[in-house]
Structure formats: C-alpha cells, structure tokens
Amino acid sequence: MAKDQIVSTMFRFHSLYRIIATLSVFSFISIFCWCQFSSKCYSMNVIMMQKAKESIDLLTFPYAWNVLSFPAGPPSQILKIGVFVKKWPHRSHAGGLERHALTLHLALAKRGHELHIFTTSSPNSTFPTYPFPNLVFHLSRPTSGGYLDQAVVWEQFRAQNSTGRPFDVVHTESVGLLHTRAKNVPNLAVSWHGIAYETIHSDIIQELLRSPEERQATMMTERAMKVVEEVRFFQRYSHHVATSDHAGDVLKRIYMIPEERVHIILNGVDEEIFRPELSLGIDFKRKFGISKSRSLVLGIAGRLVKDKGHPLIHEALKQIFMENKKFQQSVTVLVAGDGPWGARYKALGANILVLGPLEQAQLAKFYNAIDIFVNPTLRAQGLDHTLLEAMLSGKPVMATRVASITGSVIVGPESGYTFSPSVESLKKTLYKVWNDGRVVLENKGKAARQRGLQLFTATKMAAAYERLFLCISREQYCKYQK
Ligand SMILES: *[C@@H]1O[C@H](CO)[C@@H](O)[C@H](O)[C@H]1NC(C)=O
Ligand SMILES: *[C@@H]1O[C@H](CO)[C@@H](O)[C@H](O)[C@H]1NC(C)=O
C-alpha cells in the first residue's frame, strides 16, 4: 500500500511536471511572439533564452547589449585601446557625442585598460587631467573646419601601434577616423551618434513648423543623397555600434550592413551622480524659493535653441497660461541651460525660473527637485542623455515621438509620456500630466528608475563596450553564457 502511494504520488508529480513544462514552453513561445517587435520586453526574451540554456552569439545578438549582464570583476584581459574623437570635453555641458566619449572611456580607464585618445588640442583652455596613468592623450591641431587632421593622427596612431604592443581594438566616435583610413583596420568599431537617415525626420518636423517668412532650410533631396553617401562609405568600417534600437535597425535594413557587424549599445550616464536623493531636491527648491504649495514642478534642460524644440514648448506654455489660470498658479517650470530662448522663457512670468547652465552636481539636484522632465527635442539623431539622467534620478519623462526615444527610452506609458512635435499635441500632454498629478508621476518615476538601472547606467554601457572590444580582439569572448 505504501508502495502504491509512492507510485501514485510520483505519478502525480510526474504529470504536474509535464504540465508545468508544457506551460513554460507555451509561455516561452507566446512571450517570444508577443515580444518580437517590442523592445519593451527584450530583457524577458533574454531571460527566456538563458532559461533555455542557449549560449548567445554576441555578434549577431539583435537587442541592446545593455540587457545582458557581464561579470563585474576585473576584466578578463587588459586591452590596449585606440580612440579617435574630434573633441574631448572640457566642461560638463558638452554635447552628446563628447559626453559619451568622456563617460565611456573614463570608465574603461578605471577598469585598468590602456587607452590612447587621439583628439584635438584646444588653443584657449588647458587640457583636463585625470588620475589614470593608463589614459594617454595624443593631441593635434584641428583642421580649419575643426576636424581631426587625419594625416597627423594616423601617424601618431601608427607610432603607438608599432611600439611592440599593437592596439587590440580601435574605437572611433563617429567619423573621428575617416573611412579612408578606417577601411584598413579590421579590429575597429565606430559608434554613431546620429545618422543622416534619422535626420530626415528632423527635417520633416522643421519644415512643418517653419513660418512663411523663414526660408527653407536643407533641401530634402540633398538629405536623401547624404543617406546614399553614408550607405556607401559606412560599409568600410568593420564594426558598428548603434546607440539606439532604431539606429541599429536602420544600419542593418537601410544601410545594409551585415547583422554580425552591427551591435546595439545604448548610451549610459553616471549612476553615482544621477540618483534619487530627496534632500538634494529639497535643498534646490529652498535655494530657488519654490514653495511647497506648487503642486507640480516641470523641468527642462539643455541648450535653449530652436532645434531642441524650445519654440514649441514656449508657445504651448504661453497658450496654457493664458487659458488656464489654475494651471499657471499650480505649476513651476525650471529651465536649466543657456541659449537664445532663455530670455523668452523669463518673459512668460514669475513661475518660470531660468537657472542658466548647471554643472553636473547642480544638475543632479535639479533632477531631484522636479516632478517630471520635459524634453521637446526636434532632433531625431542619436540618443538623448538628459532623458537617461532624469530616469536614473527617479523622474518620469515626457518627450517628442522620435524613433530613438519611443524605441529605446519611453517605450510605453509606464515611465512617461510622448507627444508629436506640434503645439497642440504638447499642450494636450501637459494637461494630461497636470491632471494625472503627483502620485501618478511618482509611480511612473519609480518605473523610470527601474528601467534606467536596467539599461542606462554608465557601468552597463562600459561593460557592454568592454565585452565588444574583447570580442573584436579575441573570438573566444564572442559567446555569452549565463
Ligand atoms: C579661442 O578664443 C578666440 C578669441 O577669444 C575665439 O575667437 C575662438 O573661437 C576660440 N577658439 C576656441 C576653439 O574656443
Ligand atoms: C598594428 O600593428 C600590428 C602588428 O604589427 C599590425 O598587424 C597591424 O596591421 C597594425 N595596424 C595598423 C592599422 O597599422
């Protein structure tokens, strides 16, 4: 009888196991199908793949490498890395490409790799210094157009390459190293921070927003020819890093670069600096006299110029303030940055505070002081850093529907809002944010922080690049096993 019981229990266990196994195969398939075209859940795909104990071929991995986890310990091998970047940032309000170069290569230097940075000297300011003996700068005078003098940097590079220890890998930020030289370097990766195809969307937006008295900017046909030109010369670079899911798709589909040469690594920002810290926000608000009765603080940051969408949000706020006094009385807008639109914001009223450009530590406080970060950019190129900083600070974000943002950053309503680049759509979204109120925003902020930690930390970005560089220099590193 006891034996019977054991057998029947075993049988029950067995069929239960079969049901679970069948169910999980089912859910694997259905999640996979549901996920196919949604970057939202690629991490889920990865988890499922890991459960299935498949090893991943990194070179053809179709999703952002940021979703993978690479060992946090010291690197498997110290690499000698050559970096070409047109300009090395001296101040914290540098543009996207320069900030990417700074964050990434400082992180790699911290991990012990030997870095040689080929960049331009700046006649007016002294070059910054860093406490890493393994980070070496090779400066050269820029050309009249401000580019790297290719003949000079190539000679500097060759000299460094023939010291007995050749470079393991070469990284060029955009066309820092032109294709004419890059075509001879098989162990090279280029990171793109905006390609001509993406720019066509910005051209379309700018043309739609153009007032009759402004003259037409670039001709669309010229831009299309620029894409054709890029399609031709991009082929000459060995490996490509796309900084957004969308750019990765375009590089493979429209630029026709073979998939094993296109890798998606989303930008990351310093998670030690950009993090939630209630007291920082309180300090900041006190400093600028923002009263607690204000129910909502909107934050805007960056260069205050036209192509960052400032005319749009300026007009949207102006109209809302005129038609809705309650909105005006309950909302404060903090504007960080400088540019021609600063003065125009000031003229909108006392509830708009224009703070000027902020250094990184101040910017971290700024993010903590706001309830939502608004980015009305009209630039479809590259992947915006301010959104990532706000998300890591635990704030929801609201931004223009351009493919890099909707495909990699604000992929659904959980962490924020997206709008079309028109005054009408922006107004509608601002009203929605206001009606949703603080509690909803706080929840979205928590989701934003989770997504930020999962994808947009500098550590994640640097680990992904390190692994790519290892893989480019030695094939054994191209297999990913959990
Ligand atoms: C250096 O300073 C001069 C004069 O102040 C200015 O015209 C020039 O644009 C500056 N160059 C750079 C690279 O900042
Ligand atoms: C760097 O040096 C190695 C070893 O001598 C050589 O194989 C390689 O072609 C050199 N790279 C370039 C771009 O000259």
Please write out the topology.
Layout lengths: L1 H34 L6 H10 L4 E2 L22 E5 L11 H15 L3 E7 L14 E6 L9 H12 L7 E5 L5 H4 L5 E5 L3 H14 L10 H15 L4 E4 L2 H9 L8 E3 L13 H10 L8 E6 L8 H14 L1 H6 E6 L4 H6 L5 E5 L3 H10 L2 E4 L9 H8 L4 E4 L2 H7 L6 E4 L3 H33 L2 H16 L5 E2 L2
Parallel strand pairs: 2-3, 2-5, 3-4, 5-6, 6-7, 7-8, 9-10, 9-12, 10-11, 12-13, 13-14
Antiparallel strand pairs: 1-15
Protein model, in words:
It is a single chain. By secondary structure, the chain is α/β, with parallel strands linked by helices. It has two domains: 65-268 and 459-481, 3-Layer(aba) Sandwich (Rossmann fold), CATH 3.40.50.2000; 278-456, Glycogen Phosphorylase B (Rossmann fold, 3-Layer(aba) Sandwich), CATH 3.40.50. The protein contains 17 helices and 15 strands. Strands 4-3-2-5-6-7-8 form a seven-stranded parallel β-sheet, sandwiched between helices. Helix 15 (403-409) links the parallel strand 13 (397-400) and strand 14. The model is unreliable at 9-40 (pLDDT under 50).
